[in-house]
Specification:
The protein is mainly α. The chain contains eleven helices and six strands. The strands form three sheets. Strands 1-4 form a two-stranded parallel sheet. The protein has a two-stranded antiparallel ribbon with strand order 2-3. A two-stranded antiparallel ribbon has the order 5-6. Helix 2 packs antiparallel against helix 3 and helix 2 packs parallel to helix 6. The longest helix is centred in the middle third of the chain and has 20 residues. It is globular.
Length: 256
């Protein structure tokens, strides 16, 4: 079936006078970490050219797509390693001038050199398992100590609050809530239509107090529990903010 779809794609490219480079076209089989996949008989081709597979036991472990590094188990380990390298380099540069610039300027440097790497794509990788996020959280704490010129073992909670900078998990929740507000208000692109359902849209005979909440799908594994279809509605239902007749700007301000 996949090869048939690849053939349809190739015909579409030809009909629209476009070319697809088979050497740069690869595929990933996404599965749970402990799930064993038999790939001995799997051959993916396009226009008769065999495509390379990306996987943990293969030559290429991950693939970069729009700046996000994907692996076959969606652990986001490779992407977080990339993010950690970027923000570590930025933090090293900030440390060189932390005694020269005022704290407000150091905070500005944080938002221009570190924050973009942490916020980009966080809706995808922000709910990774804790063990993979620990290194990123540690570097972010070092950054908040640096811009406040605090000691290496200073408690970071007051520093985050002082600089009005969100912790990594709070930043993830912040971005998810904004996404769900836009979904609830029909402000997202059409491709997101019907991505989630409300309880009243399900085949329920009796209306309950939860009828206007998001429907949360059942999860069969820890991997599915971290995916948006389950995690985003759950977080939205737990949000205590009133969103009726509230603009996006005011919602974001109250949320923060």
């Amino acid at each position: 079936m996949a090869n048939m779809e690849m053939g349809n794609l190739f015909n579409w490219f030809c009909a629209n006078k476009l070319s697809l480079n088979p050497d740069k076209t690869k595929y990933i089989l996404i599965h749970a970490p402990r799930q064993k996949i038999d790939i001995t008989d799997l051959t993916m081709t396009i226009n008769g050219v065999r495509l390379k597979q990306i996987g943990n036991n293969l030559e290429e472990k991950n693939s970069k797509f729009l700046g996000i590094h994907l692996d076959e188990c969606l652990t986001w380990k490779h992407h977080l390693n990339h993010v950690n390298l970027k923000i570590s380099r930025a933090l090293f540069a900030i440390k060189q001038i932390k005694h020269i610039l005022p704290i407000n300027s150091l905070r500005t440097l944080y938002y221009s050199m570190i924050h973009p790497h942490l916020s980009y794509g966080i809706l995808a990788w922000g709910n990774a398992v804790q063990v993979n996020l620990n290194r990123t959280i540690t570097i972010k704490k070092r950054a908040i100590r640096t811009i406040n010129r605090a000691s290496y073992n200073a408690h970071t909670d007051p520093l985050f609050k002082k600089c009005n900078i969100l912790k990594l998990h709070d930043l993830y929740d912040y971005e998810v809530a904004q996404f769900m507000y836009r979904y609830h208000s029909n402000q997202l692109p059409k491709s997101f239509d019907n991505m989630f359902q409300y309880n009243y849209e399900m085949q329920v005979i009796h209306r309950t107090r939860q009828s206007h909440q998001m429907h949360i799908e059942r999860c069969a594994s820890n991997l599915s529990a971290r995916l948006p279809h389950y995690n985003f509605p759950k977080m939205w239902n737990n949000l205590s903010l009133n969103i009726d007749n509230v603009s996006f700007f005011k919602f974001r301000k109250n949320l923060r």
